[in-house]
Amino acid sequence: MSIKGSFIYFLITSILTILAVNSKNIMFLLLILIWLIFSILKFRNYIAIINIVFCLFFSIYRVNKEPIVSNGYQTMECKVIDAKEKYIIVKNQKTKYLMYVDDGPYYENDVVLVYGEVNKIEKDLDIDVFEFETYIKNKRVFYKIDGKTSIELLTRNKKTSVLIKDLLTSKLYDESLLMTKMLVFNDKDADIESYENLRNINATHLFVVSGFHISFFFSLLCNLFPKRKNLGLGLSTFICLIYIFLLDFSISATRAFISLLLAKLFEKKLSSFDCLSIPGILFLLIEPLYVYNYSFILTFIMVFVKPYLVCYENKFITTTLTIAFSFMACHTFHNFTSTLITIFVSALFAFDDILTDRLFILSKSFILSNS
């Protein structure tokens, strides 16, 4: 019996298992139990066994556990793994720390010498962002460095992708340089003030390279050589892979690229849902906590839910359920109390398809810009 069409079940099993293990919420524990029983009754063959294997694997694979570290004032050499306007996340050995910064800027891959008091992250964080404590812990960050802190830059190690982008834009200046970095390379740090202005007018979606753009670009390059399909596929794969590398392998763009590549290479062996599911499984193998990433949630919810709902002739039902499922996923994983409000608000905007699509794009860009 063929495994074709089964990868969506493996992806759902993986997601539910990760949520159950890391959240320890009774709802997800019941869901994964019901889902496994359903898969066993449905298949009654080796696919059900593979599904159970996925469950067992992700129940022990990279579970989000708080590391044991010593509290108090410490001096340590760390590597910057994430840099924002108000804070950075640094890593010493296998432990990550949150640190607030006033000077800078600091960039990913910088090596810094930090001094401060190591404490557990509590709810009274200095950053006034919705559910920030949950957000930061889902990045495997359980400790912060505060008190009388100091930070010294030891080495500035720019990533290869940054060096290539600097080379490609070396002939541009002023506004042309900033606009190119923001519009072509998703670099919102190129001009923080301009990006904040875009957020204030809800126009950040114009500066996000998404899976839609990659899909269009990939298909365009493939069709340049209609009589030499292998050449077109090889060229489009090579160019898109380089471009995604420059985008730091953003979830939406990478998902689209892998899905299209699988569809081209294994057209008869994989279903369309297999091609969409396999990238999700690969993402979870890299980092299981991507299930809490808004980009991951919105990308995969939309591509799976929309095809099932197009059968409804009533656009009100289709658009309402599509948006509701997308935002319910975000709220369910992060904040259970606002789920019902989400359904109500999405229903209000479901009367108009254009308004609905615009709402989703704006909301997604707002979430991504703040994550």
Give a short summary of the structure.
The protein is an alpha+beta fold and 371 residues long. 57% of the residues lie in helices and 13% in strands.
Structure description:
It is a single chain. The chain has 371 residues and is an alpha+beta fold. It is 57% helix and 13% strand. It has 15 helices and five strands. It has helices at residues 7-23, 26-43, 46-60, 132-137, 160-168, 174-185, 192-200, 211-222, 229-246, 251-265, 272-286, 294-309, 315-334, 339-348, 353-370, and strands spanning 72-83, 87-92, 95-100, 111-120, 141-155. It has a five-stranded mixed β-barrel with strand order 1-2-3-5-4. A hairpin with a 3-residue loop joins strand 1 and strand 2 (87-92). Helix 2 runs antiparallel to helix 3, helix 12 runs antiparallel to helix 13 (315-334) and helix 13 packs antiparallel against helix 14. The model is unreliable at 336-356 and 366-370 (pLDDT under 50).
Helix and strand sequence: HHHEEEEHEHHHHHHHHHHH
* Uncertain parts: 336-356, 366-370
Strand content: 5-15%
Give the oligomeric state of the chains in this entry, treating copies of one chain as homo and distinct chains as hetero.
Answer: single chain
- Outline: flat
Strand count: 5
Rg from alpha-carbon coordinates: 22 Å
Terminal-residue CA separation: 43 Å
Major beta-sheet overview: 5 strands, mixed, barrel
Alpha plus pi helix count: 15
Fraction in helix: 55-70%
- Structural category is alpha+beta
Strand order of the largest sheet: 1-2-3-5-4
Arithmetic mean pLDDT: 79
